[in-house]
Amino acid sequence: MTEDLINKKDIYFPSYLGTNDNLITLLNRATQILCDWFSKAEKFGPLPLDENFKCLMPHEEGNSEEDLFSEIESLLNNSFNPVHPGSLAHLDPPPLIFSILGDLIAAGLNNNLLAYELSPSVTLLEESLCKWFAKKIGFNDLSGGIAASGGTLSNLNALIAARNNAGLATNPNSLLLVSEDAHSSFVKCIRVMGLDTTNLVRIKTDNQGRMDIKDLRKSLDKCTVENKKIFAIVATLGTTVRGAIDPIKEISEICKERNIWLHIDGSIGGIFAVTSIPIKGLNNINQANSITINPQKIIGITKTSSLLLVSNMSTLENTFNTGLPYISSKENIINRGEIGIQGSRPAEVIKLWLGFRFLGLNGIENILKSSIKRKDFFIKNISKNKFDIYSGPLHIVSFIPKKLEPEDSDTWTQTKVNELINNNFMLSRPKFKGRYFLRVVMGNYNTKESHIEELLRLLDA
Ligand SMILES: Cc1ncc(COP(=O)(O)O)c(C=O)c1O
């Protein structure tokens, strides 16, 4: 069949003949709709809530382009909008423009990081970029890493490797030590690894939200007495609720003394380590065996984008290698489906690479510094007589009115969140140590001091 006999509706895939006019028209139209949506943010706010929003399901016959574009518009108009300056609830900043392009290119490429033969250039790109990151944080030549779809999976990859490395892969009594403020992904990791919550030992935190070293030592001694084996200790570099940083130096010394794998969950704060921004407590991270860095959370690499960096790549190879019998391999090149839990994986590294190449280290520093500056401005101006404030060296602040009874915190935060969203500010309300807090995450580059002043005025009212 010649090209001109093909019905437009039959063009399901890109043509290999250089005639992709239809795709170009569709991409242009989609781009226009997306950009219109960005600029509609001002009007609709961070979280437009239309209870009547309907998702239509596929019919016998495919729908027209017109139908689809109108459905895309409706989907966008009912979506959380991260570019709105009042979007301050979570670790979901506006998307970097070169990362948006990266996602488009990755989708079109449709290469697969499972194997070198399915993604030759992107395999080399991911390997090189992981190595670059690993070197930046101070690891040596044996180091490297693997991308994964989110911080949870990077943490999981690390812990499976840690347990395997400790010779405890099948030991049902093996333990993981984390602080009581560590992220909930560790609960999932433990379950996925066939363990239960008794295998997850929670170490107390101090009044700054950092792991309490005395309590850590006490727990370790107890484990020794009870002959319980520990496969890893996790230090959190930026806790979810208040951005605290565990004492990495002390924890790394303890891990060295006792030959225990140190994993750093740097999902929030790890990215600061590639810059020279002075962050209190961010030191000695190259003493870890593994570290999660999740650039989707603060500098706007589009979701998902997470890296696990390891000090020694052989730990990942020994843990995950299966031989991948249906795929050929090339000498000296690792099939990247063989060094992590995921098999097929998109070329997500492209948006990270393009984002970083576009920003350069100065651009990255600029974005990170601006988030700290907004946090400082917020803390400087919030009424200290009215609120108790919980915050660490990063860009997250949780707060609660002084003297509010714990049982009243649910209603107060819910009322306040509703009131704020009606004024186009979206904050979150984490439950933390038995009560609810309001939390503001200052990772939104579009938020200016005037917006923060307005937010503070609303909080004070
Ligand atoms: C400290 C920390 N670790 C891990 C995660 C999990 O990351 P993800 O949601 O990308 O899986 C989060 C998520 O917010 C986090 O705050």
Write the layout of secondary structure elements.
Layout: H1 21-44, H2 65-77, H3 97-109, H4 120-136, E1 144-148, H5 151-165, E2 175-179, H6 185-192, E3 200-203, H7 213-225, E4 230-236, H8 248-258, E5 262-266, E6 290-293, E7 306-310, H9 313-320, H10 349-381, E8 387-391, E9 396-401, H11 409-422, E10 431-432, E11 435-436, E12 438-441, H12 449-460
Parallel strand pairs: 2-3, 2-4, 4-5, 5-6
Antiparallel strand pairs: 1-7, 6-7, 8-9, 9-12, 10-11
The structure holds pyridoxal-5'-phosphate (PLP).
Residues 91, 150-152, 183, 185, 236, 238, 240, 265, 267-268, 294, 306 line the site of pyridoxal-5'-phosphate (PLP).
Short description:
This protein is α/β, with parallel strands linked by helices and 461 residues long.
Low-confidence stretches: none
Major sheet: arrangement of strands: 1-7-6-5-4-2-3
Overall radius of gyration: 24 Å
Overall mean pLDDT stands at 96
User: Structurally, how many domains make up the residues?
Assistant: 3
As for the CATH topology of the largest domain, it is Aspartate Aminotransferase, domain 2
Q: Largest beta sheet, briefly?
A: 7 strands, mixed
* Structure summary, number of beta strands: 12
Q: For the record, what CATH class of the largest domain applies?
A: Alpha Beta
Count of DSSP-assigned helices: 12
Helix content: 25-40%
Name the beta content range.
Answer: 5-15%
Helix/strand class: alpha/beta
CATH homologous superfamily designation of the largest domain? Type I PLP-dependent aspartate aminotransferase-like (Major domain)
**Shape annotation:** globular
CATH architecture of the largest domain: 3-Layer(aba) Sandwich
List the secondary-structure elements in sequence, H or E. HHHHEHEHEHEHEEEHHEEHEEEH
Give the ligands present. Answer: pyridoxal-5'-phosphate
Q: How many angstroms separate the termini?
A: 70 Å
